[in-house]
Design goal:
The chain is α/β, with parallel strands linked by helices and 229 residues long. The chain is 48% helix and 12% strand. It has a single domain, classed as P-loop containing nucleotide triphosphate hydrolases (Rossmann fold), CATH 3.40.50.300. It has a 5-stranded parallel beta sheet, with helices on both faces.
Length: 229
């Protein structure tokens, strides 16, 4: 799919945020959701790997280290497809602003780094339309790692890319894994017209710019339940 939801004639708009683990993208999208709700907009939030139908199987596969790169890719694609058809499309048809914490670009980056052929991965997700706006939060690796460790003392196995055997040290593995993902994001940034954000800036500064960029590209008044914005 090469068209956005707006280009396909959907009344709603889909806004995606992408970035490395610890880039602060989740914080920014939650702040944006609250702000849009305060403006009276119809807004819905969807998170990567959150389908109730698939989540238990994904968790079991990760815990027991049963997933190959191909099955890892396909189980996340199944999760995405379930949310796409049951949540995203109906709400976009109903005129909502849909905020996605990660979209298909996460798979394009992670699955390729794990060894899946790029064309194959894109083919798996070819049913999905493109976001109307994609924010890529570009953070230094050390900043991302520090933010993650602020929340928990130990890195998760797959989060650190330990399944790739890059390094026996989880912190070094994280750096190597995230560096490879970062390269994939940069390669996609021009192709998919990412709006690149400096994720090293203060949270408030980033959020102010996110709101400004969103309102310059999306007429949010159209999505308000009361039009007195």
């Amino acid at each position: 799919m090469t068209k956005t939801f707006a280009e396909l004639g959907f009344p709603g708009r889909l806004i995606a945020v992408e970035g490395l683990d610890g880039s602060g993208k989740s914080t920014q999208v939650h702040l944006l959701q609250k702000w849009l709700e305060q403006q009276g907009c119809k807004v819905f939030f969807s998170e990567w790997n959150s389908s109730a139908l698939v989540k238990s199987a994904t968790s079991k596969g990760k815990k027991q280290n049963l997933l190959t790169p191909t099955t890892f890719s396909l189980i996340h694609a199944t999760d995405f497809a379930d949310r796409y058809e049951r949540q995203l499309l109906p709400l976009l048809r109903a005129g909502y602003i849909v905020l996605c914490d990660r979209y298909i670009f996460t798979a394009f980056a992670r699955d390729v780094v794990r060894g899946c052929p790029p064309d194959w991965v894109r083919g798996v997700y070819s049913f999905a339309a493109l976001p109307d706006l994609t924010f890529f939060f570009r953070a230094d690796l050390e900043v991302s790692l520090a933010r993650i460790l602020d929340n928990r003392p130990v890195l998760k196995f797959h989060e650190a890319g330990m399944d790739l055997n890059l390094s026996p040290d989880p912190y070094e593995s994280f750096r190597l894994f995230q560096a490879r993902i970062f390269e994939q994001y940069l390669a996609m940034s021009t192709e998919f017209h990412f709006t690149i954000m400096d994720a090293n800036q203060r949270i408030e500064e980033q959020q102010g710019l996110v709101r400004k960029l969103l309102t310059s590209k999306v007429a949010i008044r159209k999505f308000a339940t009361n039009k007195a914005l």
